Amino acid sequence: MRLRLEQELALLREFYNGTEHADSAGEDWFRLPSYPLPPGWRIGENAAGDIPIVFLVKADYPGSPPYGFLVPAGINFNGAVPGHTGGPPKPPPFNGSWLHFSWSVENWMATADVRKGSNLCAWCRSFAVRFKEGA
After folding, report:
1. What's the number of domains the chain is made of?
2. Coil, helix or strand at residue 126
3. How many CA within 13 A on the CB side of residue 49?
4. What is the 8-class DSSP label of residue 11?
5. Mapped to the 3 state alphabet, what secondary structure does 46-114 carry?
6. Angstrom distance (rounded) from CA 72 to CA 21
7. Phi, psi angles (nearest 5°) of residue 5
8. What pTM does this model have?
9. Mean pLDDT of 130-135
10. 57-104: per-residue pLDDT in tens?
11. How far apart are CA 56 and CA 48, in angstroms?
């Protein structure tokens, strides 16, 4: 794993305990084991207070930001299927059935210092914005 990603993984683990990393075909995948959701989100008919989230970081990171993230299949907002979702563009190296959320962050400005500018931690925090939108 590249030094930048090692530093980013350490930072992610400060905020998302148990974050995992996997290399698959030269791409870096990350799994947050527990991401908090606002009220209304469900897996099937069961309320979901928190869920695992998976995302891919391509080889040109941090020059270009990550795009999209995966959540457990069957997620819904008060029974409605979320918009801008679909099957994963490629299967992640983590067990489970996944749904891909289209998502990007605006004003991506990565700096040499992983704790300043845009980073994976800020990327993950941005998911909260999407979940607050509901379906």
Report:
1. 1
2. helix
3. 0
4. H
5. EECCEEEEEEEECCCCCCCCCCCEEEECCEEECCECCCCEECCCCCCCCCCCEEEECCCCCCCCECCCC
6. 18
7. -70, -35
8. 0.95
9. 92
10. 998 999 999 999 999 999 999 999 999 999 998 999 999 999 999 999
11. 23
